[in-house]
Amino acid sequence: MFDTLKKSVAISAINYIPKNSIIGIGSGSTVNFFIKELSFISHSIQGAVPSSSVSEALLKKFNIPIVDLNTLTSLDIYIDSADQINYSMEMIKGGGGALTREKIIASVSKTFLCIVDQSKYVKKFDNFPVPVEVIPISLNSVSREVVKLGGIPEYRKNFITDNGNYIIDMHNLCINNSVFLEKHINNIPGVVSVGLFCIRKADLLLVSYVNKVDKISL
Ligand code: 5RP
């Protein structure tokens, strides 16, 4: 069922793509559906900035031009999914490990369009482990800091990010002051980025249900 819902929200997102634009593209299975839909209207965009090697390969497969973010000052829109998104439009992301590039592209995009199926839209974050990308040498030191925060760190085995780093999944974190926690974790030496997207959160949200897709903005 979730694949059907991912596909339906991906189809809806196509309506939000400005003509002749260069768009930012996230990562993951929902975004893979979106890239496929995008291929049908690829003539109406100039290109895309991908947030992962997987998304880049898929865009290339569909002959959608890849644009280097360093050649741009901003993007009109960034389309990505999330592992969870709460009623304040804050997200936990990075289940696929592409959080750092996702955060960079989101930070220079005028609009962040988040596309999810109904299972990911929650009133409050609901125990989904928060990923953090770390420089390999800092694996243990960052893990100790996670424990001090009340979290349980789990090293993501056999996984190297596109940037050559490791991922620690932080279980059991108490996310009361999400913005403070995002800044605090970002400041731990060795952390490249944390999968809390609460400072730069989503502007627009599409949520798919069996019979409809809801549009939500704050
Ligand atoms: C990847 C992400 C994805 O958006 C998130 O994991 C959701 O993935 P999927 O669409 O496969 O459920 O943050 O880093």
For the CA atoms, what is the radius of gyration? 17 Å
Mean pLDDT: 97
Can you tell me the number of structural domains?
2
CATH architecture of the largest domain: 3-Layer(aba) Sandwich
Q: Tell me the number of strands.
A: 14
Kindly report the spatial arrangement of strands forming the biggest sheet: 2-1-3-6-13-14
CATH topology (fold) name of the largest domain: Rossmann fold
Number of helices: 6
The CATH class name of the largest domain reads Alpha Beta
Major sheet description? 6 strands, mixed
Helical proportion, percent range:
25-40%
What would you call the structural class?
A: alpha/beta
List unreliable stretches of 5+ residues.
none
Keywords: Isomerase
Enzyme class: isomerase
Binding site for substrate: 27-30, 80-83, 93-96, 120
Pfam families: Rib_5-P_isom_A
Summed up:
This protein is an alpha/beta fold and 218 residues long. The protein has helices at residues 2-13, 29-39, 53-61, 99-107, 139-148, 178-186; strands at 22-25, 47-50, 75-80, 84-86, 91-92, 109-117, 121-122, 130-134, 152-155, 166-171, 191-194, 196-197, 204-208, 213-217. The strands form three sheets. A six-stranded mixed β-sheet has the order 2-1-3-6-13-14. The protein has a four-stranded mixed β-sheet with strand order 7-4-5-12, with helices on one face.
Give a description of the structure.
- The protein contains 6 helices and 14 strands.
- It is α/β, with parallel strands linked by helices and 218 residues long.
- It folds into 2 domains: 141 residues, Rossmann fold (3-Layer(aba) Sandwich); 66 residues, Alpha-Beta Plaits (2-Layer Sandwich), CATH 3.30.70.
- It has a 6-stranded mixed beta sheet. Strands 7-4-5-12 form a 4-stranded mixed beta sheet, with helices on one face. It has a 4-stranded antiparallel beta sheet with strand order 9-10-8-11.
- Ribulose-5-phosphate binds next to helix 2 and helix 4.
- InterPro entries: NagB/RpiA_transferase-like, Ribose5P_isomerase_typA_subgr, Ribose5P_isomerase_type_A.
- Belongs to the ribose 5-phosphate isomerase family.
